[in-house]
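Q: I'm writing a short explainer about VWFD domain-containing protein for a general audience and would like to include a description of its predicted shape. Could you first generate the structure from this sequence?
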Amino acid sequence: CSTWGGGHFSTFDKYQYDFTGTCNYIFATVCDEASPDFNIQFRRGLDKKIARIIIELGPSVVVVEKGSISVRSVGVIKLPYTSNGIQIAPYGRNIRLVAKLMEMELVVMWNNDDYLMVLTEKKYMGKTCGMCGNYDGYELNEFVSEGKLLDTYKFAALQKMDDPSEICLSEEISISPVPHKKYAMICSQLLNLVSPTCSVPKDGFVIRCQLDMQDCSEPGQKNCTCPTLSEYSRQCAMSHQMVFNWRTENFCSVGKCSANQIYEECGSPCIKTCSNPEYSCSSHCTYGCFCPEGTVLDDISKNRTCVHIKQCPCTLNGKTYAPGETMKAACRTCKCTMGQWNCKDLPCPGRCSLEGGSFVTTFDSRSYRFHGVCTYILMKSPSLPHNGTLMAVYEKSGYSHSETSLSAVIYLSTKDKIVISQNELLTDDDELKRLPYISGDITIFRQSSMYIQMYTTFGLELVVQTSPVFQAYVKVGPQFKDRTLGLCGNYNGDTTDDFMTSMDITEGTASLFVDSWRAGNCHPALERDTDPCALSQLNKISAETHCSILTKKGTVFEKCHAVVNPIPFYKRCVYQACNYEETFPYICSALGSYARTCSSMGLILENWRNSMDNCSITCTGNQTFSYNTQACDRTCLSLSNRALECHPTDIPIEGCHCPQGTYLNHKNECVRKSYCPCYLEDRKYILPDQSIITGGITCYCVNGRLSCTGRLQNPAESCKAPKKYISCSDSLENKYGATCAPTCQMLATGIECIPTKCESGCVCADGLYENLDGRCVPAEECPCEYGGLAYGKGEQIQTECDICTCKKGKWKCVQKSVCSSTCNLYGEGHITTFDGQRFVFDGNCEYILAMDGCSVNRPVSSFKIVTENVICGKSGVTCSRSINIYLGNLTFILRDETFTISGENPGVQYNVKKNALHLMFDVIIPGKYNMTLIWNKHMNFFIKISRETQETICGLCGNYNGNMKDDFETRSKYVASNELEFVNSWKENPLCGDVYFVVDPCSKNPYRKAWAEKTCSIINSLVFSACHNKVNRMPYYEACVRDSCGCDIGGDCECMCDAIAVYAMACLDKGICIDWRTPEFCPVYCEYYNSHKKTVNGDAYSYGYNNDNCTWHYRPCNCPNQNYKYVNIEGCYNCSHDEYFDYAKKRCMPCVRTVQPKVSRSSTTSTLPTIPSISSSAATVSIETTNPTV
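A: Of course. Here's the predicted structure. Afterward I'll give you a sentence or two in plain language.
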């Protein structure tokens, strides 16, 4: 049954009529049933096109409206769609829904325009209702109701079904259209054009065509009747009759076909594509755009063109490969031909793995699990030399009988006994050997911090993971095929017979098979018959939650799902998590097994360890973690002896390694090549730049390799003038040779060199000294060093109190007339005094930070700075929040991120500078002090004082006499032994309680400690490396960790950021400007001031955007590398980057350039700018690293 055009209908019984109502009508349904198998409704719009179709099939409801298709409880869908027995897909130019439900098949077709068609099964004859009639086989009784024959519109009114909130008026009068005879001839010709031989009766279609012609906006126009011709074409095609390509570009055109497709009136809707070129289906033809004969649709590339099958591309893991392209996988190469992979298997190594305590995967990929405590034969083979056997030792690792795990792997032959266990390597006479270890054709070395590798020349390779769970991976060459026995199976390519026992029969269960390979008298292995997760619902949920990261979408592991099925690994993960007491190492081991399998397929899952709690690995020293590492070219040893450690693994392994360009030395530190020792035979080594004489040849250790200069090369030639070569083999007047060659550094120490043994080498001519670059210079040109940088003769630097000039390799310093020092109060009670003493206190009283007038005769004090501590953590940790500054009658009160000033004192000049991050007070007490007070509106407060008198100062900031030892001077003028006694003496209010102990918030909040250490580690990272040799970072790091642990009521990120900002500021004081904040890590929102203006009364901001005023930006400092007249601090500034705001002139002024010294070899980073003037300038060093995210 179908409807088309402006309102033509053809019922199931092939009766044709016309009706143009615009209500919602039932098209076809099953009569008189409470829940009919199908119910199809439609509504025409005023433009006569079909506006909506509703298809109800039992519980499924499909709605087609405005060209989009939605399914109830799924929403809008994309084609093709298949679900619950319903298929919706394009069908030529139409869309077809096929429903195959319980005992029912139904097809609905539409074209998003004027056409709707339903095909039902014969069993519904006589049972249907709706505009499609009663389907009883007689065409003239469609409109009979209760025995009366109704008019079309009355019949249609019965089929009307209003929406819930609608009353649709149906057409009341019958308009029976009369066809015009004058169009009969042309209509008949047009229908013949479609199909002259079609057996579908033409009469009804001629009438519909005539009606189309006369109702048209341009009557008689051929294009008026396209819908009817199309319907005739469809009905002929459905009756499998011949249909011609009757459409042309300007007659009923289907529109332009995309790409190189062509129009066919009768094309197969079963589209042959590159992904399925053989597709065929028994369906009638339809009109639309199709690929020309002999080509298929390229559905793999996104351009959907028709190509010859030979040009079809291939896909793999979501990547497209062009025809003819080859792809290499672990053990096969595949070539893309005709849209398919044509693969050839290559000879491939066998792999057997012992993972997760109790899981074994054999060479032929059979996985099993067993719980036994014994030494088992892992692999024996006639291909192993000297009767070699590989064994595995399993031990109990917990209380329950199933907590057994691999603890060691043994290789035994008539020549060797090698035991590799968790701690180290033992050999036959049970002595511990250090790695690397060589015995004949076996080499054992540490490939990374987590893996030990045993490399042999006879085709066996063993990789052992030592942490977190001891696991072993055996790899054998193809020559072992069919020649192995033991727990790793028989490696014959057949998985079914892997349980081949030592008695040469295939067992059915793992435990019996394992027992037959016991290499000692031990109890049989036990099967765990109950699921370990069944014992505790809580453990089960926890295990499933943690392990589900393997199978979830949107995780790190998802990109490997296409290559390696995660389900077996997920099950193994859950089993391990429930079975072993130590849950997390085993969960991580299961995730690691999956990641390893993925990397064996060429997919390295970067960062998977960070996606799971407790799986990340912390590296010692300055090593970094990598998912693809090897010892080769990352250790000093591999430079000395490539045969020892340069054996690659074909599956990437993870672990800690030295950063690129550094090498692991004998002390487990990462050093540059030039500091690598050189390894000799039997574990001896010589340090860099030392020499050894073997067989009359002198060898020097240079860059980790022995560089031997024999008789052939004259070492004297390597000396460039003015150096000359001194050799120990000649009889010398100086019997120590080059040992005490004069260097600038020795000149600076001024101590005579004490030689111990003779060394040959290049020596500067008399009167010249070797400088840091190895050149010979006269004494006055020797450079001076400061903070890792070299300064030439006559260059100056300024520290807080001195101006120093470089002379003859030494600094000559002159004290400045005015000298300043800073006292810092930061974070939760950390204080650094003027003389540099550090302590922490937690007290919630008011304390005097600094005041003058402390000498015995008690003169009147001209200033007093008091801090009041407020508790800001559950553990009782305090933070300095409120600060009062008394200058005679003038009082500043700093609290709640703002300040108030009351009273006046004409003898004091002050100036307040405001910034988004800081408030800065410049205070001058004429004849006595110049003070700068900087407050970051939270917990950090800095007092910078330069004094013109030697007036004594006292308080928690110490006595400012240059001596750190007596800084704990109490109010009563004696030096306290500990800081608590000292702090309690400086209480402003004597009735306030004393402090008796300092809390350690990290021990109270152990769960926060890891977070604190991780986030504070930015201080130790490359971001601040430029400052590491200028300011000792450890106290700042410890303070940061303590504060981040203690701030546990809120504002924890603020505490942490403030603590890091203190270190950044200490660096800035030394002239190193560090750009450490990022949008994710401690951001500062300076752009706010571009779009918000101060309100009239001046204490709030309102939004007032001004396009051309985008001048506010965050800067880590002002005028980097240049002279700057104020105290340099980070903040929001609205001058350009090479200008600063002059507070006196109230405008931006250009920065003043200064010269750069050159960088010495000992510098931490190779390009580190610095400045002659330290206290008043800064050098920006911004290093791209990944900051920890807060």
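A: For your explainer, you could say: Residues 1158-1190 have pLDDT under 50 and may be disordered.
Q: Perfect, that's easy to follow.
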